[in-house]
Design goal:
alpha+beta, Lipocalin, nine-stranded antiparallel β-sheet, extended
């Protein structure tokens, strides 16, 4: 029985040593490869598709309806001015500044607005609003991403409906056949 235990201990020890050696060799291979080299990027791009995206410039001055909840509450018509990676958001009597980082990947533009002048009391860090940005000509629309604790919405103010008014119904007094049962003047549709 003693030899059986010794043999089992030796096999377990041998398997543990082999597992450790394979992990060390795998890490050594990764350490030898520079993280900035093209080989690493090419391998990642081939295996997962290129999801790195490219930085997007949202520079411009936009006006629209602003709603922000979560880290700071504000609502109303506002002006958003973006110059490079800096922004200023003016809503009513409040003006806030910060940095914005936007990246477009596969047609989706995600942006993070860092409000450097508003501090989250729980974490003592700047309030961050993560949004989906859509820029079309001189218009910018921001919508909060799901799960974001600070929800920022920016866009065009709600427009009034431009539907045409319905035409009034025909006056029954003008219809000579209405409610009389006399259909002698009525025309029959062709078959």
């Amino acid at each position: 029985m003693s030899n059986y235990r010794s043999l089992r201990f030796f096999v377990v020890l041998l398997l543990a040593a082999a597992a450790c050696a394979s992990l060390v060799l795998a890490d050594a291979g990764a350490l030898g490869q520079n993280a900035n080299s093209s080989t690493t990027e090419d391998t990642t791009a081939r295996s997962t598709g290129d999801v790195s995206g490219e930085q997007t410039d949202l520079s411009g001055t936009y006006t629209g309806q602003v709603t922000m909840t979560g880290g700071h509450e504000m609502s109303g018509p506002g002006t958003l001015t973006i110059t490079g990676n800096s922004f200023t958001l003016a809503v009513d009597t409040m003006t806030h500044n910060g940095r914005v980082y936007a990246v477009t990947t596969r047609g989706y533009t995600g942006a993070a607005f860092y409000f450097t002048d508003i501090e989250d009391p729980a974490t003592k860090t700047p309030v961050v609003a993560n949004v989906r940005a859509r820029k079309s000509g001189d218009r910018l629309t921001l919508q909060p991403v799901p799960g974001s604790p600070t929800r920022l919405t920016f866009g065009m103010a709600a427009r009034r409906s431009t539907r045409r008014a319905r035409r009034p119904a025909a006056d029954p007094a003008m219809d000579t056949n209405a409610n009389t049962g006399d259909n002698s003047n009525a025309t029959t549709p062709p078959l």
